[in-house]
Design goal:
Strand order of the largest sheet: 1-4
Oligomer: single chain
Largest sheet: 2 strands, antiparallel
Number of helices: 3
């Protein structure tokens, strides 16, 4: 862990850098989760299905993120414009948030 001069080895420095980055990512992940909760974009869902034998089943509850409310939140910092390429199978296949994004993005041209 330490070299002859008493300083950290390259491996120890790498491990410390990894831990610092992991800690920063952990804090950012918690902040992102809290922002999703505050914006009320997490939607609970489950899937009901029936097997060929007639038995009914349900997936465990899960949550999905409805990004529509996030699209209209003000940016806290302005980032440079980026090119976005969106491919889809037609308007009918787009979710409402995706349609909103497409309408917004096309308006930026």
């Amino acid at each position: 862990m330490f070299d002859e001069a008493g300083g950290p080895t390259a491996t120890a420095q790498s491990a410390m850098a990894f831990c610092q980055a992991y800690f920063a990512d952990s804090k950012n992940t918690v902040a992102f989760g809290q922002a999703q909760i505050a914006a009320k974009v997490l939607t609970p869902y489950h899937v009901d299905f029936r097997l060929p034998d007639g038995s009914r089943h349900q997936t465990k509850p899960n949550v999905t993120c409805d990004g529509a409310p996030l699209m209209w939140l003000p940016l806290s910092s302005t980032e440079p414009m980026q090119e976005v390429v969106v491919a889809h199978l037609g308007e009918a296949t787009l979710s409402q948030p995706a349609r909103g994004f497409m309408e917004f993005a096309v308006g930026l041209r």
